């Protein structure tokens, strides 16, 4: 049980970090530079793709559960 609680806390902290970085880039004009290259737009694209990808993976999983684990009454 404690393992699941720690994983939950880790997920909450990771989500808060991603939200903070996204908010900072969008609204506070944060620029992340790697050498002379501004990688802020790349980070936003990666975050957006990851969010969309995970949502559709979750929807596919829910669909799988609904199809193969439905109880007939």
Give an overview in words.
With 73 residues, this protein is mostly helical. Helix content is 75%, strand content 5%. It has two helices and two strands, in the order αββα. Strands 1-2 form a two-stranded antiparallel ribbon. A hairpin with a 2-residue loop joins strand 1 and strand 2. The chain is elongated.
Task: State the gist of this model.
Helix content is 75%, strand content 5%.
Using brief descriptors, characterize the structure shown.
two-stranded antiparallel sheet, 73 residues, mainly alpha, 2 helices, single chain
- The separation of the N and C termini measures 33 Å
Number of separate strands:
2
Q: How much helix is in the residues?
A: over 70%
Structural class: mainly alpha
Query: Biggest β-sheet, characterized?
Result: 2 strands, antiparallel
Count helical runs. 2
Average pLDDT works out at 85
Low-confidence stretches: none
What amount of the residues lies in strands? Answer: 5-15%
Cα-atom radius of gyration: 18 Å
In N-to-C order, the SSE pattern is HEEH
- Give the spatial strand order of the biggest sheet: 1-2
Overall 3D form: elongated
Summarize the helices and strands and which ones pair or pack.
Elements: H1 2-27, E1 33-34, E2 37-38, H2 40-68
Antiparallel strand pairs: 1-2
């Amino acid at each position: 049980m404690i393992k699941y609680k720690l994983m939950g806390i880790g997920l909450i902290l990771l989500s808060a970090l991603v939200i903070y970085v996204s908010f900072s880039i969008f609204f506070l004009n944060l620029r992340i530079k790697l050498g002379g290259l501004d990688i802020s737009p790349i980070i936003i694209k990666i975050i957006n793709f990851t969010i969309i990808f995970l949502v559709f993976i979750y929807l596919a999983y829910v669909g799988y559960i609904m199809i193969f684990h439905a109880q007939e009454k």
